[in-house]
Specification:
Elements (H helix, E strand, L loop, with lengths): L1 E8 L6 E6 L3 E6 L4 E6 H8 E2 L4 E2 L1 H13 L1
Antiparallel strand pairs: 1-2, 2-3, 3-4, 5-6
The structure holds zinc ion.
The site of zinc ion has 7 residues, from loops.
Amino acid sequence: MEEVVLTYRCPFCGGALELVEDESSVWFGCRRCMRYVKREKRQIVKRYVDYRGRRFNWSGVMAELYHLYIS
Ligand SMILES: [Zn+2]
């Protein structure tokens, strides 16, 4: 498992939000609150990889996960 500490902050406790991935999914959330949201990697790739431009829209993914987290 890979773990990334992010600049996003948890609106509930103020802690840093983290991104954790396993084989099929990406989890985004707060360790202190034990609150996480999940997206399948397949979905993310389909929506955020621009094959023609060979770019990955990382900030788009983060924005979506953050919205999911706070809603
Ligand atoms: Zn929190």
